[in-house]
Structure formats: C-alpha cells, structure tokens
Amino acid sequence: ETVINYKPEYITDKDGHRVRFRYDKKSRKFVRDEHGELIPDRRGRTFRQWREHIKSPDDIWDEIVKAAEIPGTTSASKLQPIKARIVMLQ
Q1: What is the Rg, in whole angstroms, of the alpha carbon atoms belonging to the chain?
Q2: What does 17-50 look like in DSSP terms, one character per residue?
Q3: Which of 23, 29, 54, 68 gives a 20 to 30 Å CA spacing to 88?
Q4: Which pTM value belongs to this model?
Q5: Where is average pLDDT lowest: 3-17, 28-42, 57-71?
C-alpha cells in the first residue's frame, strides 16, 4: 500500500495560514537568502508549491496515474486500499 500526502497549494504556517515571502517585482522572482531559502516578508507574496497546470488534488492524482502508467495494466482508484480492506473484512 502506498500513501500519498499532498503538499498544500501554498506554503503555510503551523496554524494553516499562508506565509508571505519577499518578492522582487522587477525581476518577477522570489528573493532568496544565501542558502537558497525564501525570506519571510509580511508585505510579500504567497508562494505556490503546485505546478502551474495543477488546480486541484484531482489534477495531482491525474499526473500520478499518467506517470505510473504501464502498458497492459489498469490504474488504481484513489479509494482502492479502502475497498480492499472492506473485502478482507467480509
């Protein structure tokens, strides 16, 4: 069984609030420190962790299914582990 944990769409703090980071409007890039880390800035922008074309967790699942496609096999549904447990308990 494989468990997939999605990162939130935006970087959040421990309370689930979106964190803002320093952003350079001229270069249209986030500013990073000497270690390559984003610099927190209350007046900055939120940092999106998902790829441009990903809009929902279903889009993430579609990408996983596409990447794991093997000719001659079928893909698993997101609920397959739950269905398998139900069958085992019957």
Answers
A1: 19
A2: PBPEE-EETTTTEE-B-TTS-B-B-TTSEE-B-S
A3: 68
A4: 0.70
A5: 57-71
